[in-house]
Amino acid sequence: MNEEPLTAIKWDEYHLLPAIVQDAASKEVLTLAYMNAESLRLTIETGETWFWSRSRQKLWHKGATSGNTQEVIALHLDCDGDALVVLVKPAGPACHTGARSCFYRRWNAGTGHWEPIPGVATAEQLQEESV
Predict the structure, then answer these.
(1) Which of 13, 59, 88, 114 to pair with 42, CA 20 to 30 A apart?
(2) Rounded to whole angstroms, how far apart are CA atoms 85 and 76?
(3) Percentages helix, strand, coil for the chain, rounded to the nearest 5?
(4) pLDDT tens digit string along 31-64?
């Protein structure tokens, strides 16, 4: 791979780039993850998402253990070069909890609580959050 895709990036102080993962068909935001140069290179080369785990300090291939891979349809770099939108075709839930999206809770100003979004959260998450 030539270096051009990497030189356009303005990496943060940890040499990371926020990557907003979005379903290419529905446009639903699935997750926010981080990429370093190696995970971006692997994403481009393999056509599937790779990220940098800030908590584990290592690369991870989305779906390597769960089977819930994400086929990359397009990569969009923002105007400042410091954030990426990754349009994907998901092969299952994006969230490690089993929810379709990691963004499965919404703020309810009336109750003053975060509440699961029906149709995004799993039945188990809806049950757990209502307890």
Answers:
(1) 13
(2) 5
(3) 15, 35, 50
(4) 999 999 999 999 999 999 999 999 999 999 999 9
Q: Are 36 and 52 in contact (CB under 8 A)?
A: yes
Residue 77 half-sphere exposure, CB side, CA atoms within 13 Å? 15
Backbone φ, ψ for residue 70 (5° rounding): -130, 110
Strands 50-53 and 58-61: antiparallel
48 contacts 69 by C-beta, under 8 angstroms = yes
* CA 59/CA 34 separation, integer angstroms: 10
- Residue 18's closest CA among 78, 99, 74? 78
Kindly report the length of the chain: 131
Quick check: 76 and 87 in contact, CB under 8 A? yes
Q: What is the pTM of this model?
A: 0.88
With b for 16 or more beta-carbon neighbours within 10 A and e for fewer, the 50-85 pattern comes to: bbbeeeeeeeebbbeeeebbbebeebeeeeeeebbe
Q: Can you list the domains of the chain with their CATH numbers?
A: 4-94 (3.10.20.810), 95-131 (no CATH)
